[in-house]
Amino acid sequence: MIKKILITVMTYPTLSSKYFETVCTAGVLEDGSWIRLYPVPYRMLKDADSKYHKWDWIEVDVERNERDFRIESYKLKAPTPIRVLGKVDTGRKRDWRERRCLLFKGKKVYTDMSELLCETKETKMSLALFKPNQILDFSCEPIDMSEFAEKRTKIEQLRQSKEQELSLFPDEELYDYSFKLAEQIPYKFRYTFLTDDGKKRSLMVEDWELCMLYRHCQEGCSEKEALEKVRQKYLDDFSKKDLYFILGTNFRWHSLNALKLDEGKNPYMIIGVFYPPKPPVQEPDLFSSL
Fold first, then answer.
1. pLDDT tens-digit map of 63-105
2. Which of 78, 132, 196, 223 is the most buried (most CB within 10 A)?
3. Which residues contact 58 (CB under 8 A, 6 or more apart)?
4. What value does the mean pLDDT of the chain take?
5. CATH architecture, range 2-87
6. Of the options 2.60.40, 2.30.29, 3.40.720, 2.40.50, the CATH number for the domain spanning 109-145+184-274
């Protein structure tokens, strides 16, 4: 089925024993409903015109991902081209009005994580728009890179195997298997925040935009300075915005804890950050009561 999708989320590339490297993409349809595309061999796409970005409208042939119980999950009908239709800009005044309208269309904005977890358990939903009550912290936690290095070596060997290459995405006109695997980011980034249920929550941030900011900040800076710049952007700058999280569940966490979600098991991660400027404060009408 052909779907027109507005891309709102792209996670940083992750290693995959089956697909070498995958990118989880999420967005909204024209009616405002959520859709997830996984797996997407994004960096293997040979045609540069097929490489979409956040806030691009794309048109693509998809089918339900029958191996994924989450109701929003689809996959590319491979081999299939991706047609990029155009970008939704922020507007001349950079007020993000059109982006806001398209993202919020037909959606509930959650502010209570307990409520979201209960609805997730009942409906198998796995994507949501969430507004934190108060941002408390943004942290950068170092991770053990030794496991990643070992996995990367194994996947690189698989990638070089012609038999493996041809068995995954056989249309060589669409996919390029000579790409270089993405560098692992040696940190986990995490927001800590309060929600309307009165609880303090802490969720990992898996947004490609965040990881690329970290890599950009590394240029000409010490590691400490780079991390401080990232923290300043995501904590100080974004706290001044009308901040929302786009949440998505981790498939493994979700499946393992499907019956325990109302017991505090949280399968969600922050897979995108939406940060339009705060709407202007409406001045009271001094004559309205006269």
1. 998 888 999 999 988 667 889 999 999 888 888 999 999 999 9
2. 132
3. 4, 5, 7, 27, 52, 82, 83, 84, 85
4. 86
5. Beta Barrel (2.40)
6. 2.40.50
Place of tokens 């009165």: 198
CA 34 vs. chain centroid, Å, equals 12
Distance CA(21)–CA(13), nearest Å, equals 6
> What DSSP string describes 187-256?
EEEEEEEE-TTS-EEEEEE-BHHHHHHHHHHHTTS-HHHHHHHHHIIIIIIHHTS--EEEEEE-HHHHHH
- In angstroms, rounded to a whole number, what is the distance separating the alpha carbons of residues 19 and 181? 11
Shared fold status for 2-87 and 109-145+184-274: yes
The helix (run of H) or strand (run of E) holding residue 149 is: helix 146-159
pTM of the entire predicted model: 0.88
**Domains of the chain, residue spans:** 2-87, 109-145+184-274
pLDDT tens digits, one per residue of 158-194: 777 644 555 555 555 677 777 777 888 899 999 999 9
